[in-house]
Amino acid sequence: MRDMTDDIAISLKAISKSYGGGVDAVSNLDLDIREGEFFSLLGPSGCGKTTTLRMIAGFEEPTAGRIGLGGRDVTWAPPHKRDMGLVFQNDALFPHRTVHQNVAFGLRMRRLPAAEIAARVAAALAQVQLTGFEARHPGQLSGGQQQRVALARAIVIRPRVLLCDEPLGALDRKLRASMQFELKELQRELGVTLIYVTHDQEEALTMSDRIAVMNGGRIEQVAAPDTIYNRPATRFVADFIGEATLLSGAVVRGAEGVHLALSGGLRLPLPGSMAPMAGAERTVAIRPERITFSGDGAGLPGHIVDANFLGTATLYKTRLDNGALALVRLPAASGEARPGPGDRVALSIPPDAIVPVASGPAADGDPA
């Protein structure tokens, strides 16, 4: 029988990093990243994602725990013995060297034959669509081209793992979207395991096979992008990923089914799967595109506070009669009359759109 650990590229076991004075950048983190996976570490500034990446790379030593690379313990191995390529937001190219010389640098340090260096540099530049740019210097390139050079320099050594720390953060929005697609395509073509650090939720959802959402040095949830978005495990994940309406109350089971008893006497019908939670105080999350305005006035009553046109949709901020804020995103409809700020509305929320969320990190990551 095949050992499933054969599929694990990077394994973190009880990893912690403390800088003293009671500051824990990373706390008791467990994580397995699969071979050939595009895996993102996502979270706000200061959540520990870059520190985690630097420990994987060997630039930081963990205070506790173990780091495995393909089953080999590399916890204390120096960076140059970890078989990893690195790409950062600041591409750190040598300004006085040509594109060819920048890409060839790592190979020269490994003392490869000149003919092999030339062949591998040419192949790497072709993969990032920079053939013909060999003689240029970084200052003669655009921001996107410089990032491609940094990628070529990382992949030319044929690493087992590619580590990327916000590599597209300095690019404008349109170029960033184009580079996201190119990076994902390159990762698939190479079959390399890629670990990507970002604070951009849309970027992580677009590119990743799986995402670890981090907060306060801990992992809140690990799952595929659609699960992270549609079934957030915790209040933090629901609130951090996109927009969400968060409502709290007691779960009540009665003759008419299960509902959430909100303040002000409001009642929110819940899915039957939440019946075992009856008697408990719970918080639920609802994505704004799953909420609509009721045509017959049945639903949670409130009024519109603001309406923001987003091009393909309009995001309505509504205030329920009990004071809670709810978000409604409706597709743009040309010529159709829509309510505006100050108008009374009733919100219709299908039970299957309601997801119970925990107040703190989930006990187990989703293996999907």
From TrEMBL:
<keyword id="KW-0067">ATP-binding</keyword>
<dbReference type="InterPro" id="IPR003439">
    <property type="entry name" value="ABC_transporter-like_ATP-bd"/>
</dbReference>
<keyword id="KW-1278">Translocase</keyword>
<dbReference type="InterPro" id="IPR027417">
    <property type="entry name" value="P-loop_NTPase"/>
</dbReference>
<dbReference type="InterPro" id="IPR008995">
    <property type="entry name" value="Mo/tungstate-bd_C_term_dom"/>
</dbReference>
<keyword id="KW-0472">Membrane</keyword>
<dbReference type="InterPro" id="IPR005893">
    <property type="entry name" value="PotA-like"/>
</dbReference>
<dbReference type="InterPro" id="IPR003593">
    <property type="entry name" value="AAA+_ATPase"/>
</dbReference>
<dbReference type="InterPro" id="IPR013611">
    <property type="entry name" value="Transp-assoc_OB_typ2"/>
</dbReference>
<protein>
    <recommendedName>
        <fullName>Spermidine/putrescine import ATP-binding protein PotA</fullName>
        <ecNumber>7.6.2.11</ecNumber>
    </recommendedName>
</protein>
<comment type="function">
    <text>Part of the ABC transporter complex PotABCD involved in spermidine/putrescine import. Responsible for energy coupling to the transport system.</text>
</comment>
<feature type="domain" description="ABC transporter">
    <location>
        <begin position="10"/>
        <end position="241"/>
    </location>
</feature>
<dbReference type="GO" id="GO:0015417">
    <property type="term" value="F:ABC-type polyamine transporter activity"/>
</dbReference>
<dbReference type="GO" id="GO:0016887">
    <property type="term" value="F:ATP hydrolysis activity"/>
</dbReference>
<dbReference type="InterPro" id="IPR017871">
    <property type="entry name" value="ABC_transporter-like_CS"/>
</dbReference>
<dbReference type="GO" id="GO:0015847">
    <property type="term" value="P:putrescine transport"/>
</dbReference>
<keyword id="KW-1003">Cell membrane</keyword>
<comment type="subunit">
    <text>The complex is composed of two ATP-binding proteins (PotA), two transmembrane proteins (PotB and PotC) and a solute-binding protein (PotD).</text>
</comment>
<keyword id="KW-0547">Nucleotide-binding</keyword>
<dbReference type="Pfam" id="PF08402">
    <property type="entry name" value="TOBE_2"/>
</dbReference>
<keyword id="KW-0813">Transport</keyword>
<dbReference type="Pfam" id="PF00005">
    <property type="entry name" value="ABC_tran"/>
</dbReference>
<keyword id="KW-0378">Hydrolase</keyword>
<comment type="similarity">
    <text>Belongs to the ABC transporter superfamily. Spermidine/putrescine importer (TC 3.A.1.11.1) family.</text>
</comment>
<dbReference type="GO" id="GO:0043190">
    <property type="term" value="C:ATP-binding cassette (ABC) transporter complex"/>
</dbReference>
<dbReference type="GO" id="GO:0005524">
    <property type="term" value="F:ATP binding"/>
</dbReference>
<dbReference type="InterPro" id="IPR050093">
    <property type="entry name" value="ABC_SmlMolc_Importer"/>
</dbReference>
